[in-house]
Write a structure and sequence with these properties.
The protein has 487 residues and is an alpha/beta fold. The chain folds into 3 domains: 12-29 and 160-270, NAD(P)-binding Rossmann-like Domain (Rossmann fold), CATH 3.40.50; 32-156, no CATH class; 291-483, no CATH class. It contains 18 helices and 10 strands.
């Protein structure tokens, strides 16, 4: 027997819904972007209140709006530092924010770092360091206020009343992938009412525990009956929707119900492009507006040159030590050169410090493995500390690579992957990177299956590349290196 349609516990807001238009629920059910804005507002109020309380308790200033306006630069600087640092520390990851334990721990750590950074900012901050007690008061109040606000969010705003209730059009493999993504990445923010599908064989059945509740003819009724906030279209070839289904979706849109494509929701939740569910839809993998990226690309190249020159100097500084260590372990070259595919499909020579035994691929190209026996003892340390990557700074200076971007793959593997994975060539639209969105979100690639998942991350980066995303990648990279988790 298929599971019964979900029964939602009645509440005052539910009773109001039954008397109003379907879109009324959207007024108080929170979308992902709205949740992030709310979290940011709570954080700003918390840190501003902590600073104001410190000024009142320790400096004797009145706890009033006049104090804030008279010293706007003090509060503006604190909010500015928070706005830069907090997102980079994962403060607006909704999965973390929705659980009390992780929300409190992340909030306390981020607030501590921000408070210390504010205290050590010279000249333009209030005189909080004139005594250790004043400085400690500010730190304690800021950590406590931010943690309290995040705990309240995790306790209250993940309740069913505030969840975004969705109805999914299409119970095929794209719909199943969407359900998995919703439950994995936003289980506390989304509530799945069910599926709508025009395939008669699916009607009355279930996909997992999610029922197929009707056809396109039932869509408007189901949206109203189950107080749906959003309809998500999970049909691969949505550009060829049948007329009745298209009309039903447009009717929902006309009545004020949010209608979204599966690919958009999937990207927002996972940070990946669902390339295996894209069919032949080019818009799924191509950037929406390349012209707006021109200034960004110029800035990116300038930053690459600076980082590349600095990295080259560091590589030259450690070269004598690395060369001695490699020579002491055995014979073979200090550097390892390998052909890789770069921007536009052009092949270039990537340079690294050698970490494997000589003739490691005498039998032909092969994927690197975890605990690879071909890696030498010195090589393990070079890889663990990521010193082996330093010579790639010259690739960056020459314009063959960038600091951030898809990792360059070998021509032998690219040929096979292009034949088996749709849109694989799209990752060559940008310079490959020393680190990338796939590297900081997924393990080291060891198979074609891993290559598919990493491609999803790479295409997301190409579609959404920005200064902020590059900064986030670099911060995550530093964190992975310092914690020894590798890339």
């Amino acid at each position: 027997m298929p599971p019964a349609p979900p029964s939602f516990s009645p509440s005052v807001t539910d009773r109001i819904d039954r008397l109003a238009l379907p879109s009324v629920r959207a007024w108080y059910s929170l979308r992902l972007s709205e949740r992030k804005v709310l979290l940011y507002a709570l954080d700003v109020l918390a840190i501003a209140a902590a600073l104001l309380a410190t000024l009142g308790l320790r400096l004797g200033l009145p706890l009033s709006w006049e104090t804030v306006s008279a010293h706007a630069s003090w509060f503006g600087l604190l909010i500015g530092e928070w706005s830069i640092g907090a997102p980079l520390m994962g403060m607006y990851d909704l999965r973390t924010a929705s659980r009390v334990s992780t929300a409190a721990a992340t909030a306390a750590a981020a607030a501590l770092v921000a408070a210390v950074a504010y205290l050590v900012t010279p000249v333009i901050t209030p005189p909080l360091l004139y005594s250790r007690l004043t400085a400690a008061t500010f730190v304690v109040l800021m950590v406590g206020a931010v943690t309290l606000g995040r705990t309240a969010y995790a306790r209250l705003l993940v309740q069913p009343t505030f969840r975004h209730r969705v109805l999914i059009v299409g119970a095929g493999w794209a719909g199943r992938a969407l359900v998995e993504a919703l439950r994995t990445h936003a289980g506390s923010e989304y509530e799945i009412a069910g599926f709508v599908d025009d395939d008669p064989s699916r009607l009355g059945s279930a996909v997992g525990d999610v029922p197929v509740m009707g056809t396109s003819a039932d869509l408007g009724r189901l949206v109203h009956e189950y107080r749906v906030s959003e309809v998500i279209v999970a049909v691969i070839r949505h550009e060829t929707l049948e007329a009745p289904l298209l009309q039903a979706i447009l009717d929902c849109h006309e009545r004020g119900t949010q209608v979204t494509l599966m690919q958009t929701v999937y990207e927002r939740l996972t940070g990946r492009v669902p390339v295996e569910h894209a069919g032949k839809s080019l818009h799924v993998v191509l950037p929406t507006d390349r012209d707006s990226n021109r200034v960004y690309l110029v800035l990116k190249r300038g930053t690459d040159i600076l980082f590349g020159l600095a990295g080259t100097l560091v590589a030259l500084a450690v070269l004598p030590v690395v060369a001695l260590a490699v020579r002491l372990e055995g014979r073979g070259p200090i550097f390892y050169r390998q052909a890789r595919v770069g921007q536009g499909g052009r092949v270039f020579t990537l340079v690294k410090f050698r970490t494997m035994v000589e003739d490691a691929e005498a039998a032909g190209p092969m994927w690197a493995q975890e605990a690879d026996e071909r890696v030498t003892r010195v090589g393990r340390w070079l890889r663990r500390l990521h010193i082996d990557e330093l010579p790639q700074a010259m690739n960056i200076v020459r314009g063959e690579m960038s600091m951030t971007g898809p990792r360059p793959e070998r021509p032998e593997f690219v040929k096979k992957l292009e034949a088996g994975i749709p849109f694989y060539r799209a990752r060559h639209a940008m310079r490959p990177g020393l680190t990338g969105w796939a590297q900081v979100n997924y393990r080291y690639g060891r198979s074609a299956e891993d290559a598919m998942i990493k491609l999803q991350y790479d295409l997301y980066y190409i579609k959404h590349c920005s200064v902020f995303l590059d900064a986030l990648i670099l911060v995550k990279t530093i964190g992975l290196v310092l914690t020894g988790r590798g890339l």
